[in-house]
Amino acid sequence: MKALAGLIMRGRLQAALVAAATGLLSLLLPLFGLLSSATLALVTLRNGAREGALVGVLSVLGVALIGALTLGAVWPALGILLVLWLPLWALGWVLRQSRSLSVTVLAAGLAGVALVLLAHALIPDPAARWLELMAPVREALVSDGVVDAGAADALFAAVARWMTGTFAAALVLQWLLALFIGRWWQAQLYNPGGFGQEFRELRLHRGLGIAGIGLLAWIGFNNGPGLLPDLLVALMPLYLLQGLAVIHQLHRARGGHAGWLVGLYALMVFFMPNAELLVACVGLVDIWADIRARFAQRSTGAG
Taking 80 as the threshold, does the pLDDT of residue 285 lie above it? Predict the structure, then answer.
């Protein structure tokens, strides 16, 4: 990965080539989208918004040309620009200007909230729209005998009611993971170990803690999804990342074996989404309880 970061920083054309190639590969394997977005983030973080924008323009032109020659359409370039590159260029600029990972994470969360508000403002019934979009999948499952029609209707109706918030949360998490990869690349090249320390110190504003508790309380008294639950779901990646920051800091302070963190991420993969919700709760509690500071005080007192 360090070699790839070095290639990106050799020049504008090399960065555009990596961004365009991984952007196209993301159409087949979505994980390449993280590398494509991280390329724009790295260039913007290191060389500024203007250079990041120039690399983005070259990348768009490259993808548009390939799309026109192979598919007869330039829509892949527009989709990649809007989903992968433009958000990371903006977040890279915010992080470069603010020098605060917490502020940048907040900016990504607010973008997710804006997406949820926009969806509810423009679409009278977002759940019904999601049902329409998922109808081909439902019909395929029923026709293949995987699930009967009645069960499929109930399942897809339940999923559709939460899809607006889940979609926004997935985008926010994708953007932040790509930003973290770009920041990690920057640290590898110019400040080894810097990103780890920066991530472990991640701390959300107390306003997000108030918002999280308020939304949880509302959901407790009002059964069923809607605008406010969708807003909470969109903010969940922020609490999740703070929870992970807490766990990483405590793990480092205790001198734990790396296998513990590997086990944690394995649990998060195999017990999704329950494990993520548990870690997010840790992050939400930390906003108020400051678990890391309390642990440091106990350690100092014990010493």
Answer: yes
CA distance 191 to 197: 11
Question: Per the domain annotation, does 179 fall within a domain?
Answer: no
135: how many CB neighbours lie within 10 A of its CB? Answer: 11
Locate tokens 């548990």: which residue?
Answer: 278
- Is the pLDDT at 280 greater than 90? The verdict is yes
d(CA 58, CA 17): 8
Report which residue type is found at 168: A
pLDDT at 301 over 70: no
Domain assignment present for residue 263? The answer is no
Report field, pTM of the whole predicted structure over 0.85 = yes
Question: What residues contact 102, with CB distance under 8 A and at least 6 apart?
Answer: 202, 203, 204, 205
Residue 182 lies in a domain: no
218-224 — which CB contacts under 8 Å span 24+ positions?
A: 224/161
Domain range enclosing 50: 1-99
Check residues 158 and 147 and name the one with the higher pLDDT. 158
Within a domain: 94: yes
Domain count, the chain: 1
